[in-house]
Design brief:
The complex is a heterodimer of chains A (85) and B (209). Chain A is an all-alpha fold and 85 residues long. Chain A has two domains: 53 residues; 28 residues. Helix content of chain A is 81%, strand content 0%. The radius of gyration of chain A is 24 Å and the shape is elongated. With 209 residues, chain B is an all-alpha fold. In chain B, helix 3 packs across helix 4. The longest helix of chain B is centred in the N-terminal third of the chain and has 23 residues. Chain B starts with a helix and ends in a 10-residue tail after the last helix. Classes of the chains: A mainly alpha (85), B mainly alpha (209).
Chain lengths: 85, 209
């Protein structure tokens, strides 16, 4: 197996969506190829960092303002639709 | 026991029940659906638009459109999948408007080789997140993901940040499964490449700290 092939399978490898045979081949490649080992490890860390550090949380006060605005619009739309009939 | 069982059954059917009730004009039921998914929609909208004001508008417009078009929701997919599809379209529209650029789409940048071949192969520090304070780390992560094309970052956010499956992501974005997979690989590799400059081990490529 070459590094290029390893890269092509990287996403499925990380997601655990490959056959036993292919996994064995990839694992063997990892044993001797330090570069692919680093790419695998740091790609895994990249995903974990983004998953563990939510960078765009919705603050509670904004959340309740948005909720009110949404429901006001929905109520109006519902009312308009009913009175239009 | 009976109550517990009843509650469990309600949990399974509640989304469908809420959607059915909302279709009949039950605003309380729709309000529950908003509470259930507003945080996710906001996060996805922020990631796509990079702009808090736009993200707020996307949240409002996506839920309003969903409410107004509930009759068209067939129930073949999950309500959330349908909702996110609406939100992604709204977010892309706002991004286009802000950039005054009609070319922004999920199809752009597919052929790019940027990051497809790893150049940075130095080990990272064992605990990269601890190298920076919370707000500094947040800035690094924001800046880095904002550098990806909209198509790549949308796929990355849905799959890796929101934890949806490849199939669900494909359905939400109107892309094929292989297209999602190829964008996900590129997105992951490009982010990895760009984060390396912040997180790589100070001692370079010897893999030891």
């Amino acid at each position: 197996m070459k590094c290029k092939q390893f890269l092509q399978e990287l996403t499925d490898y990380l997601d655990g969506k490959i056959s036993e045979n292919l996994k064995a081949e990839l694992d063997e490649h990892l044993l001797w190829c330090h570069e692919c080992h680093v790419v695998l490890d740091t790609t895994k860390k990249t995903i974990e960092i983004y998953r563990d550090n939510q960078i765009y949380e919705l603050p509670e006060d904004l959340r309740s303002r948005l909720h009110q605005a949404i429901m006001t619009k929905c109520r109006k739309s519902h009312h308009d639709k009913k009175s239009g009939h | 026991m009976e109550t517990i069982q009843k509650k469990a059954e309600e949990g399974i059917t509640s989304e469908l029940a809420l959607v059915q009730a909302a279709k009949k004009g039950d605003l309380e039921a729709f309000s529950e659906l908003v509470k259930r998914y507003d945080r996710n929609v906001f996060r996805i909208a922020q990631h796509i638009t990079h702009n808090e004001e736009d993200a707020q508008d996307v949240v409002q417009d996506a839920f309003l459109k969903a409410f107004q078009n509930l009759e068209q929701f067939q129930g073949n997919s999950k309500f959330y999948t349908w909702l996110v599809r609406i939100a992604v379209n709204e977010a892309l529209m706002r991004l286009r408007r802000r950039r005054n650029d009609r070319t922004v789409s999920l199809d752009e940048d597919v052929e790019t080789e940027d990051g497809a071949i790893p150049r940075e192969v130095a080990d990272w520090s064992p605990n990269p997140e601890q190298l920076y304070g919370t707000s500094e780390l947040g800035d690094i992560l924001k800046k880095t993901i904002q550098g990806l094309s909209p198509g790549f970052r949308t796929v990355f956010v849905l799959r890796d940040v929101e934890g949806l499956s490849t199939e669900e992501t494909a359905e939400m974005l109107g892309l094929s499964v292989p297209a999602v997979k190829s964008r996900l690989l590129r997105a992951r590799l490009q982010l990895r490449e760009r984060l390396a400059k912040y997180f790589k081990s100070k001692r370079g490529g010897d893999g030891q700290q």
